[in-house]
Amino acid sequence: MTQSFRLESGGLINRDKKISFKFNGKNYFGYEGDTLASALIANGVHLIGRSFKYHRPRGFFGAGVDEPYAIVQLYRNGETEPNIKATEQELFEGLEAKSVNCWPSVNFDVGAINNFLKIFLPAGFYYKTFMWPKSFWYKIYEPFIRRAAGLGTASIKHDKERYEHKYEYCDLLITGSGPSGLASAYSAAKNGAKVILAEDKSRFGGTLLTSEVNIGNQSGKEWADSIISELKEMPNVTVKNRSQVFGYYDHNMLVMSERISDHLPKTKKFHPKQRLWYIRAKEVLISSGSIERPIVFGNNDTPGVMLSSAAKEYLKVYGVLVGKKPLVFTNNDSGYETAIEFKKNGIDPIILDTRKEPQSEIIEDAKNMNINIKNSYVVVAAQGYKKVKSADVAKISDNKEELGSIENIECDCICVSGFWTPTIHLASQSGNKTKFNEDIDAFVPGIPKQNEKTLGAANGIYTLEETLKDSFEKGNLLSKKITNNENKISFPNVVEKKSTVHDKFWCVPLPKGKNYKRFLDFQNDVAVSDIEIALKEGYRSIEHVKRYTTLGMATDQGKTSNLNGLQLVSKIENKVVPAVGHTTFRPPYSPVSIGAIVGREVGKHSKPTRKSPMHSWHEKNNAVFVDAGVWLRPRYYKRGEENLFEASKREARNVRTNVGVCDVTTLGKIDIKGPDAAELLNRVYTNAWLKLPVGKARYGVMLREDGIIMDDGTTTRISENHYHMTTTTAQAANVLSHLEYYLQLVWPELNVNVVSTTEQWAGAAIAGPKSREVLKKLFPNSDVSNESLPFMGYMEADLFGVKAKIFRISFSGELAYEINVESDNGYFMWEKIIEAGEEFGIQPYGTEALSILRIEMGHVAGSELDGRTIPYDNSLEGLLSKKKDFIGKRSLSRKAFAAEDRQRIVGVVPLDKKTSIPEGSHLVKDSNAPLPNPKLGYISASCWSVEYDNPFSLAILKDGKNMIGKKLFVMSPLKNKVIPVEIVSSHYVDPKGERVRS
Amino acid sequence: MLHIKCPHCGMRSQNEFSYGGDATVKRPELGKEISDQDWDNFVYNRKSLRGKHWELWQHLSGCRQWIKVQRDTATHEIFKTLKANEEIS
Description:
Chain A is about 25% helix and about 30% strand. By secondary structure, chain A is α+β, with helices and mostly antiparallel strands. Among the domains of chain A are: about 15-130, 2Fe-2S iron-sulphur cluster binding domain, sarcosine oxidase, alpha subunit, N-terminal domain (Ubiquitin-like (UB roll)); about 165-290 and about 420-495, 3-Layer(bba) Sandwich (FAD/NAD(P)-binding domain); about 295-420, FAD/NAD(P)-binding domain, CATH 3.50.50.60; about 505-590, Arc Repressor Mutant, subunit A (Orthogonal Bundle), CATH 1.10.10.1100; about 605-645, no CATH class; about 900-995, Elongation Factor Tu (Ef-tu), domain 3. In chain A, a hairpin with a 2-residue loop joins strand 37 (about 710-720) and strand 38. Chain B has a single domain, classed as Folate-binding superfamily (Folate-binding fold, 2-Layer Sandwich). Chain B has one helix spanning about 35-45; strands spanning about 5, 10-15, 20, 50-60, 65-70, 80-85. Chain B is mainly β. The interface of A and B includes residues 250 and 745 of A.
């Protein structure tokens, strides 16, 4: 296959390295340094997709980030990615891409019938049409719209690529490596400032790569190359290509996405595909340049109509002709540069200039080269369907309202230049109130809100000399302030062609009797007529017009369409553009992959996984784990073919009859020290703490200020001024913050220190009637009798050479102990317990058995202390001290909290003693009552009682106090269950609590 | 992301901190009689101010100190930060 549109020589591509690629199943080749777009154009491929709404043929419009059309589905190394701009995607060996938004193929697209139905698809079509009948939405309208629309298909496979995040600080962040970026970076770097220079494209230099200028006796490109290579050598400078600064956030933080591997056939081993940089910059210099503006005319979306600057870039960077019979349609001097470039390469362009008698150096050059120039001429409409074949042109009157007679000129591309629009997105995101510059018909940054300055073309400065001067100076001034160092650079001699003023013309009137579509937004198919309809229908605010018509809402975010849309609205409304205002610029500037945003925090890496020191023992003994917050806890230990239900019952039963051991390392632990420690506890817990003796533990409940229970746990007095507090696994961090809040802000006079020791201690709970026997074997030298170590007692002991703390506390309701050793000794302790317990039939038990044991005992836990209940609701009102004040006490006297029929915890047993009760079910009086059936309460926790061998649940029930013995129904519409139940005491087993004291 | 100057540690990113609400609210003294209305004002009622606002942050992933921050709720500008024991002036 020959590259019929590639020039014999020229461009910045590497002609020694051919690269083969596939587009829509066909093989082509290009060169190293090509983009997919330049390689396709070189091969004469101009039809790349179909438009979003009307499915009109789409070609290439730009040569970079502003591209509205050329969006493809990319295939790389077995993965696929949608929404890739062919103008940005660099060519690599084996690249495969497909058109999107067309079916069955780009050449024959069924959806293109929309193009002929367009009279029925005006602005707001979707809003108006798919409203009724309502039942059609899910089954007919939505699937149809989804199939017809869309810009590619996201992969549903797991993304194997790695994405990284990086945090960086710098003195100056400079966004864009055109003349202003290079000059400011250079002068700032010379002053010793820490500089990051970011370039979106693979090549540095911006417009210097394509413009005919001379800086210090070098061409623009040579100068850019020399500056870049010098910057790269400097230790205080980071130079990044393929890096797009896409968002400007608060306090001068900017986010940049670096495409590290997208241009390679495959990501190198240990390399990320992309890297997201969070950059906190002292100063930001926005040097993002400007984007050429289209002129609006009939059928201006036909493939072959493109920006004149893009045509020039394809020529100068890639050695590619976008056409062999070009028409240049311009209202300013930029079009002439493109025409001259064509002419230099042996192609005869025709220039249509909307201006009557413009005069400048560049125009003079064009004339001297014998380029055909037609003044006061416009393109009325492009002709051709899948590619421009000719153009209808006409003379236009001086007032730009009357068209002369239509002539037809044969051409294969129309290069359009409607002057330039500064890229002000970053400045606007930063909070800069932009202002309208009449000279260039565009918005430019105004007064900065954060530490940002905008340079060069992005600031509406269009001469190289002025740009360089200003940028050298700004870079120097800003860096000097930071580094207190000045290294003045002599300003190079600049040679550039002078241009003259542009024509404020932007939209060609329709000829009489013709109804050509004149597009404003090329990606979303928004035409002049759509905006007119929206305004006729009463939409006024530019934000509303945008949403109703979808102008500027596509993935290109209106980079080429916004200003023309504003011009149109202001013309119809008879307002000036600044009065209409522009829509809000929001990050990202151009699409960023979800992978880059997520980074490494994927799946199991989204949070750290915490494991107890005994984890490997659990693994070896067939534990099945469950996530408990960020912890992994054994849920049960599987024996043979057991399932969860069988295993948990076995483990719980073994605790009730023999002895079990449970890993309780995950419990939150807080060390509290200081002479006022008891006073602190007395204020944050609801019960009395001042008289707790040394060596004793006490159960406590703490409230929030609003009276709701925050957490519960036991706290032990280790010595006179030293306490050991435990919290639930889930609330550990919150409780610590809670204590710190009161100590630091409310009662700074209390002399207390708190610190988390959760990780410092490994914990094992030994529970069951035979637990004391196990303890005796573990601590043969200590007296662990009921007299010496009673219920809620504490002692320190020696566990075969390891210091251990023994707490006689119980969550299971059985005689039980908790042993803590320093974490490093956790595994040793666990093995010793298993060894010592063997003769008593010890078995490890997991969280499921733990739940059974606490539920049938009526011990409240997280499912009852759920942020909605007060102490009374959990039968904990006995712990409310009447003698002292404590956090949250005042709230308990509020009316609803003191109501007679207040909700309260109860036990629930199914009448048939067989049917398990789903957690979350509702309790109702009458299962046949009309809906909505009044809810009396809800099931908070369910288990299979091993004591009675039947299901048992806890519930929070309205007027629970007076409901014991009543018969109600449990209803679970989710599980489609209705279960007749009896309400019993929540203390189903050992209601007097004799076992724990035995 | 905000950049907050912890009076103990210096400039740090927002993701090291957690927000703690209005810094001008004073907890009523323990054991003191208080009307329902005053108690409600302490527990629940907050103004949603636009503009300068003193608020609490805890340097959770840093020194764990609660600090006072004067921030503009509309522009996010931070004017001043104080230690927990320093009075708002």
